[in-house]
Give the backbone structure.
Amino acid sequence: MATAARAEQARRFERLERLTQRRYLLLLAPAVLFLVIFYGYPVAAMLLRSFNDPAWGFGNFKPLTAARTPIEILGVSLPMNAYLRVIGITLQIAVGTTIATLLLGYPVAYALASMPMSRANLLMIFVLVPFWTSILVRTYAWMALLGTDGIVNEVLMGLRLIDQPATLLNTRGAVYVGMVHILLPFMILPLYAVMRGIDRNLMRAAENLGARPWQVFRSVFLPLSLPGVAAGCLLVFILALGFYITPSLLGGQRDIMISMLIQQQVVQLKWGFASALALVLLVISLIIYLVFVRVLGVQRIFGGGRR
Amino acid sequence: MTAPASAASSAPSIPRERAARRVVPRVSAARVVLLTFTGLVLLYLVFPVFIVAPLSFSSAKYLQFPPPGLSLQWYQSYFSRPDWVAATWLSVRIGVITAVLATALGTAAALALVRGRFRGKDAINSFIVSPLIIPTIIVAIGVYFFYARIHIIGSPFALALAHTALAIPFVVINVSATLEGFDERLEWAAMNLGANRWQTFFKITLPIIRPGVFAGALFAFSTSFDELIVALFVSGAGAVTLPRKMWESLRLDIDPTIAAVSTILIVISVTILASAEALRLRSERMRTARVPDAARDAPGGAIQ
């Protein structure tokens, strides 16, 4: 009698659970449908275009494999396979930016993580204010700082370190300064989160066992902080690959990144070729992402909705 | 992280003073270098943000530093030029539409992704957050080709829809984070007391996850408000947003009006940041308030 009632109750509970699960799918449907229409489908259709616009085949990828493709960008004619060169420049800038943000960000995250929570939160404002400031505004600020009549030149000339304004803007260096500035918070935040989670008792234990401070850092703290390093590098590298605004405004005529090239091709109505370049950019990003996730074991950074 | 005190408490056999003396002098030497370096990097991060405001009050006709005199002429120029004002209002409108749509869609999706158990959940989750990782130019030209075919280039609402796709991941991530620590027994209690699902959601669930929902909405608004690349392609002549107006000004004629605009934007983003921080602190407080509860349920009866 009692068991039958309990079985009945269990069945009812199971039915309720199934019903609830179905409701969850209903909750999910609008967002998924929306993203399919306004994001998934347009991107997929665009990528397909690289194979069928203007004609089916791999014609759009030919310029990338040809040994010489003269190209004119902003009035400057670049020799050699200019498209591959742009991809090379993009990778180079992305790698350089990632290394620079890591070298600058790691000590900062370390210092912040070793401070009392209240002070670290206060100093974190210095990381978060630029993080929330529009990229355009920050890029403009660097234009104002690095321009011919800019603040840096004025200060250097005021100190009589230089006689006439140096060319700082529209150089590769300016691109690095601006991009590192914009991407540094993306390195510091995951590093800080991981470092905060490291149990300080482990370092004290190592110290008690006679390790020198450097040894404690190298064989205890550093390995434990590596997940943060990997997450930060992945984030910065992938974001840097797609940069458009900062290199356009701070870079010179030779600092063309792939996003700028894609935009240029769209303007010139070579939609098929633009799509092929977009596919190349996407494939590079995905390969890097998979390498980090599978090989280095980075947990997905954007793990919304996982327990 | 008061190292000496905790070291002493974890190793009671070492006299307190000796532990303190052992740790303090060694820390300071390397630490000075570390803190100086940290200070310089933090200065590098904030300095450009704070350099913009003095420029905006300059009386000079061009970008000049130090400003020869003070003036409000660039603010006047900004507020009196219809193209700047119209662009600003358009950006605000598109941002609000984006925030409303993304928050509604994203909150529902986050509920399903955190609570539901169904096949393909990981794949759907990856798809929903993927706009964050995929370079924006790819999304931008995809949407541009699509909108060009159905002839809605230049429509502000169409731009808001594209922005919504970019903003949904932020809402999903923020709301999911609040939902992770949610005690579902509160909802069961409400339903046991006769509330239906809608009442339960609006009276119990929503008030508790509100910080995450608001934070998501703020992220969504600022994603749209700052977005340039999609806007460059899709806005046409009919939907010139503030970032696009700024972009054109930066490319063509850098008059210091843009310094005034930038200063206003910095004030807005600092305000948004302050609200987001306040929300984060609140949601953290709510989560820690539930910790004893979780501790009771844990097998050992305590968390550590």
The beta strands of chain A are 71-73, 76-78. The CA atoms of residues 112 and 122 of chain A lie 10 Å apart. Confidence is low (pLDDT under 50) at residues 302-307 of chain A. The first helix of chain A runs from residue 2 to 52.
